[in-house]
Amino acid sequence: MRTFQEFRMKILKAEFTRSCVSPEHFPNGDVPEIALVGRSNVGKSSLINSLLQRKALAKVSRTPGKTRVVNVFSVATDDAMLPHLLMVDLPGYGYAKVAKSVRAQWGPMIESYLTQPARRRTVVLLVESRVPVSQDRHTMIWLRSIGYLPVVVATKVDKLKPSARIATLRRLEAELGLHEDESFTVYSSMTGEGRDQLWGLLKERSRT
Predict the structure, then answer these.
(1) In terms of C-beta density within 10 A (0-12 exposed, 13-18 middle, 19 or more buried), how is residue 30 classed?
(2) DSSP 158
(3) Considering the entire predicted model, what is its pTM?
(4) pLDDT tens for residues 124-160?
(5) Helices (H), the chain
(6) For residue 165, what is the domain's CATH number?
(7) 199 falls within a domain
(8) What is the CA radius of gyration of the chain?
(9) Which of 26, 45, 146, 202 is the most exposed place for a label (fewest CB within 10 A)?
């Protein structure tokens, strides 16, 4: 696991711009894109709101599987090196109670977006710190296979017992099969822990 610098990002503007239901709606410009991937109920919407310091920009639902389209948010920052970016929330995978016909649409939608050419796209793979699943590892392997080196974020870290935290996170890294040069960090949307560290990683990736 690499070390990295923290980065305090001030958000000047953040707004929802569109819901994409087919590839022709996907962003196709030259603005850096931050794509969030993860299973249903991993906390993607909560992380977006926390990261962008907005209370209800992304709709948070108690029902897993609610995000069924690709949602795009436009963000303006105070940083001259990263003044504008798009945050892209992809449908969550792995929720069995959603109708099979709906779940069957998610895979192609995610794959269509991620395999669309983009000069500056960073993929963030969210995994729950307490409950890693085999689908997370399979997703990690697939992302590597199509050319991404995702930033892995362990969510809901505030729910870990302090005495078990280090061992739990090390086990999570091992179960995901993370390499030494791959980025791994923790996040709590409740406390804001990890916000500056994650912005540091995203800025570094978006500039390359």
Answers:
(1) exposed
(2) G
(3) 0.88
(4) 999 999 877 788 998 999 999 999 999 999 999 999 9
(5) 44-51, 100-115, 134-145, 165-176, 195-206
(6) 3.40.50.300
(7) yes
(8) 16
(9) 146
